[in-house]
Amino acid sequence: MLPILTIPLNAIDRCQKPIKWDFITHTVSVSSLAIFVLTFQILIKSSMADWSLLPKDLLYLIAQCFETPFDTMRFRSVCSSWRSVVSPRRHRSPGRFPFLPNHGISDTTWGFYLTKRSVFRIGSPMDRSTAHSNDWLIKVEEDVYGRNKLANPLSKSSYTPLPKNFPKVLDLLIFPAFELCQEFVLHYLNFWPVSNRTGDASDLYREKVAYKCLNYDGSEFVLITIHVSGKLAMFKSGDGRWSMIPHSVLPYDDVMLFKGEFYAVDNSGATFLVESQDKITLVAEPVFGGDKKILVESNGELFLVDMYLTIDSKENFVLDDKNPESILHEKTVGFKVFKLRDDGSKKWIVVRDLGDTILFLGENCSFSASASGLSRCKGNCIVFIDGFPCPCEEDDGEFKGSDIAIFCLEDGSISPLSRHAEYSLLFWPPPHWITSMSGS
């Protein structure tokens, strides 16, 4: 196990362009105990020193431990001397994952390609006591041409078109940004990819993908997803092939990467550590009851959300054989939340109060956030996708969030996002403190 070094990237004194991170804590894995000791001594003894004068050899070693492009971006935002140590493209561009062959995993496609999206909390540069200082949640996806697209953090609905006064650049020297989660989506191709073209593709069964990078530049990786059969499917870049994992009798509901390891939960709530195709270990016994199980990480602990569903239909609908899924739709009627005990008993324990925590359940990723870090929001609730699908685009200034609802653990109530202004403002429209920067 590699030692873990927690580095607070707070305000850097006397740098050419200091960035205020409000004591953001970022955890990186360090392969050398010497780096750990040296950096710790520097942090303790040099809190008022000129951080721009840190040895470049040390900065380079620390930068090699970063796991995401956002880590590199934050590092380079500190000052010009830090920026000179690391080039902006240290990792594979999110839109440039290699083509994944079919090899019999699907009968309807030539192969697959993978996209990565990141969900951020953009903090207000204004004092929190100031009106309209609410934070903003946003999903960012970089396409194959290097262009960033903004989307609803819980779905794939794009924010298009953006308001006319939306800035072309979000300066991290002004806006503190926190990466809440990453999501990976498999798309299948209905043609042989003879160029960089990636159009005419659809999500693979709309299932979540858990992805793990095995080396620094991202050229070696392994991922797992849920096949249409309900079994796990694993792809290793070194093998270049898909492998089915016929382990659980019941279909799997969710997969995730937790503390660097793959976890999967089946429809009963039985949860497994997936180390390889042949090594799967039960880590939690079933919790029968609900209709869909979702894994979420919160404060370094593993949570299980049990979703209770019913079948609902649109009012005044007209039967359309071409699109029957637009008529009948699963609707959420309740939740139960569990936390994995850390005593090795393989038991889920019921959680009746999340305290300051908010759980967010999206189409392709789930994450948690502290309510105290989100202006004017309260914890002990679940924000999730529900109801009928809304249009895939958001009008300029108008949020079509009819597919998002909030579940309150205290009283078990479910209500649409539109009834909670403090939560709705987390999504759309963009805060005034962002749009007001367009002319600066």
TrEMBL record:
<dbReference type="InterPro" id="IPR036047">
    <property type="entry name" value="F-box-like_dom_sf"/>
</dbReference>
<protein>
    <submittedName>
        <fullName>F-box protein SKIP23-like</fullName>
    </submittedName>
</protein>
<dbReference type="InterPro" id="IPR051304">
    <property type="entry name" value="SCF_F-box_domain"/>
</dbReference>
<dbReference type="InterPro" id="IPR005174">
    <property type="entry name" value="KIB1-4_b-propeller"/>
</dbReference>
<dbReference type="Pfam" id="PF03478">
    <property type="entry name" value="Beta-prop_KIB1-4"/>
</dbReference>
<feature type="domain" description="KIB1-4 beta-propeller">
    <location>
        <begin position="116"/>
        <end position="400"/>
    </location>
</feature>
